[in-house]
Amino acid sequence: MQKPQQQQIQLELKESEAEGIYSNLVMVGHSPSEIILDFARFLPGTPKARVHARIVMTPQNAKSLSKTLQENLKKYEEKHGEIKLQQGTMEQKNIGFSRAGDSEDKGKD
């Protein structure tokens, strides 16, 4: 059986996107047909976190992203050592990267 040929995709990266967006907080929500990722910055001493980017994707693409992140984190740790989450960090206080729960209407304003 012949393996399907992989398509080469050229990515266009504009200067404004090449700078990247820093995020230390992500809220994840979903509906039956999409996964919503809101990337925000939380600054100590401020009452709000501002969303700087929202990514909406299909559940299939989100699962593929999850697998790709896991593979890349494994490769990173093999090269640079284990990534340790510190006690008492924002992640421990449920302020860091976490899921918003089973919100059926997240992002449906």
Explain this structure.
- The chain is α+β, with helices and mostly antiparallel strands.
- The protein has a domain at about 20-85.
- It has helices at about 15-20, 60-80; strands spanning about 25-30, 35-40, 50-55, 95-100.
- A 4-stranded mixed β-sheet has the order 3-2-1-4.
- It is extended and about 60 Å long.
- Residues about 100-109 have low confidence and may be disordered.
Properties at a glance:
four-stranded mixed sheet; 109 residues; alpha+beta; extended; 4 strands; disordered C terminus; 2 helices
- Structural class designation: alpha+beta
Biggest β-sheet strands, sense, barrel: 4 strands, mixed
> How much strand content do the residues show?
15-25%
- Please work out how many helical segments DSSP would assign: 2
Percent helix: 10-25%
DSSP E strands, number: 4
First-to-last CA distance: 48 Å
Order of helices and strands: HEEEHE
Q: What's the arrangement of strands in the largest beta sheet?
A: 3-2-1-4
What is the C-alpha radius of gyration, as a whole number of Å?
A: 17 Å
Mean pLDDT across the residues is 84
SSE layout and pairing:
Elements: H1 15-18, E1 25-30, E2 35-42, E3 49-57, H2 59-80, E4 97-99
Parallel strand pairs: 1-4
Antiparallel strand pairs: 1-2, 2-3
Summarize this, please?
With 109 residues, the protein is an alpha+beta fold. It is 24% helix and 24% strand. 6% of the residues are buried.
